[in-house]
Amino acid sequence: MKAKFLLLFFTFLFSCSSDKNMQPNVVLIYLDDLGYGDVSSYQLGTLETPNIDKIANGGIRFTNGYASSATCSPSRYALMTGTYPWRNKKAKIITGGNLIIDESEMTLPKMFKSMGYQTGVVGKWHLGLGKDGPIDYNSLISPGPNEVGFDHSFIMADTQDRVPTVYIENGNVVNLDPNDPIEINFDDNDYGLPSGTKNPEMLTMRWHHGHNKAIINGVPRIGYMKGGDKAKWSDIDMADEFINKAKDYLNKVKDKPFFLFYSLQQPHVPRTPHPRFVGSSGMGPRGDVIKEADWCIGEMYNYLEENGILENTIIIISSDNGPVLNDGYYDDAVEKLGDHTPAGNLRGGKYSLFEAGTRVPFITYWKGKIKPEISDEIVTQIDFLNSFSSLLGSEIKSNDGVDLSSVFFKNKGKGREELVIEATSRTAFRKNDWVMIPPYDLIAVHPRVNIELGNSKDHLLFNLENDISQQNNLSKSNPDKLKEMISRYQEILGSDKKKAKKLELE
Ligand code: NG6
Ligand code: CA
User: Fold this and answer.
1) What is the CATH code of the structural domain delimited by 419-500?
2) What percent of the chain has pLDDT over 90?
């Protein structure tokens, strides 16, 4: 009798702890260079993104949601580790470089794994591969995503504009012919092959700055590449490839709890929409690839719905940094923009310390659990690790993250009070409605991408409550506030302060 009672008791306990709702699936959809004004539910631009809007309007649309940095690799580092990127001197834009996450570091996928999840990444990685120098693409590439928490990976190593232009699945280059090994370099050895500088007649897309080395599929790239012909991706098919690989992965794991990091390449350069999206936006390739990405997100949503798992899946949509128009190719992004405003009502863009560098579309969705809401709480991608950990009942915590599980998933609670943002190794500080940008005696406007970087000889101080576009510098009229901001900012930066000095113009 007693044994029967105990059995019943433990069955009861087990059924509580294995409550399906406490192990929701998670699909983290991450775009590359998508701006605050690029999503139509934000009602700031004129481009239509109906599939993202459907998710945004059914979930929480954050108006103060931040990437941690105004460029890719640092933001992704913070997203994965919950650590500010300026604490890690390796967390800079990667060009063929090594993995910037230490294998011993806690990561978002590791946390999910520790709670019994299947973990996969499909799409752009840009966190580096291998260690101790040049990467050999002709044998197993390690460490990489599989060594920092992902059971499965199908990735583009860095960016679409960098060599090697191949996919890597679980550490191996896909379709690599051993008789045609890959060699790459980012210096001056063109291997005697055509290049963007030597052979403009071979180009289907012209380079504006940088991007003048190997020509692959008519597009000039960053770096030279020899060999690997059969393994080269088709640029126009990349969006389909990623969504198909994402679905293939979900087909394998959908009956278990899973975490999928679905990392889209759009609208980063080179913008190469599939022909069925060409002309779809009326804004040239930049608008067209956003339409394409929006379609992919709709496909993901439909997949979850058709497979009966939408209700038990949290969807997150965000971007790694703010928007840029001309990021190195002539692709009509400027000429065909019309009255669309990728940065919305924010100042700056990619590479900038002004708001548009890091404030991005930020959406959480959980059918039947999250109530539709527009939230102006301050939230950041650094907080995902702690927030998911708390939601799942894990003890794991990161260095700099805050547990915002209530704000993200329960329509309640307060967001962050303060946040240090980063842009190409410079930093600035937001606290409540105030933003303080310390002096950087550097060029004010990026000469090639034409974006205001947030550099000034003097401190800049803005109150976003009535000056979201950061037009009125209050540092002279409000010295007490300035002092308070500087003091708290320096306290957070502590000994890592020195690292945040140098500007790198990309
Ligand atoms: C820069 C590239 C830019 C883009 C960026 C990375 C040049 C001149 N510019 O170095 O086109 O690739 O790196 O963007 O090469 S990110 O979104 O991945 O950070
Ligand atoms: Ca980016």
Assistant:
1) 3.30.1120.10
2) 93
